[in-house]
Amino acid sequence: KQEVTQIPAALSVPEGENLVLNCSFTDSAIYNLQWFRQDPGKGLTSLLLIQSSQREQTSGRLNASLDKSSGRSTLYIAASQPGDSATYLCAVSPGLIFGQGTTLQVKP
Amino acid sequence: NAGVTQTPKFQVLKTGQSMTLQCAQDMNHEYMSWYRQDPGMGLRLIHYSVGAGITDQGEVPNGYNVSRSTTEDFPLRLLSAAPSQTSVYFCASSYGGGGGYGYTFGSGTRLTVV
Questions:
Q1: For residue A8, how far is the Cα from the chain centroid?
Q2: Could you read off the pLDDT of B70-91 as tens digits, one per residue?
Q3: pLDDT on residue B102
Q4: How many CA atoms lie within 13 A of A18 on its CB side?
Q5: Element counts in chain B: helices (H) and strands (E)
Q6: Are A96 and B45 within 8 A, CB to CB?
């Protein structure tokens, strides 16, 4: 059974810092991995999708990497801003199995 | 705007009542699914569908029914609501059944069963 773990569960950083969120999964037979953002009381917004054949994807200040063999993905956020404060979720397919999320707070 | 639309946004039910959570998408996605999100439990898959007329159970299907008569709609039915079904429910869709094209989520339905 696929299990997805995200570390840390919560993170607080000052504005401007570069930071890394971690995601690990137990079964390397995945189709893809997707990173989402969830604001309090809101739905999920897709940030990045990495296919199983890819190593990384970039969108603006976000960069996600995937190492299927080791069962790991990282989400790198450059020059963090208060508007980045949210919960970040990673999920793997097939089936879209979610981790518990990392709640990020960026302080002005 | 194209996307996944869920209704209602909020609902309070009494124990034993029934209701249907609506989900519609206008992206011609084949794959649709329902999740519930609970504190400390993350998002868990309830039911999913790989196309019109085809549905299957996910991780936590008990107490919920689904049907898929059209590509666009995937309603979730609670036949006899229980307090344990208090949760936030999300509907999602994807172009491919394996999620190869990524998933789009609705804004959620917050359900309270008293």
A1: 11
A2: 999 999 999 999 999 999 999 9
A3: 81
A4: 6
A5: 0, 11
A6: yes
Tokens matching residue A78: 């450059």
Contact A68, A29 (CB under 8 A): no
Whether B42 shows a pLDDT value over 90: the answer reads no
Closest by alpha carbon to B94, among B45, B21, B61? B45
Model pLDDT, residue B98: 55
Q: Extract the tokens encoding A24.
A: 């690990």
Are B43 and A32 an interchain contact pair (Cβ–Cβ within 8 Å)?
no
DSSP A42-88: S-EEEEEEEETT-SEEEETTEEEEEETTTTEEEEEE-S--GGG-EEE
**Would you call B99 and A99 a contact, using CB atoms and an 8 Å cutoff?**
no
Chain B CB contacts of A33 below 8 Å? none
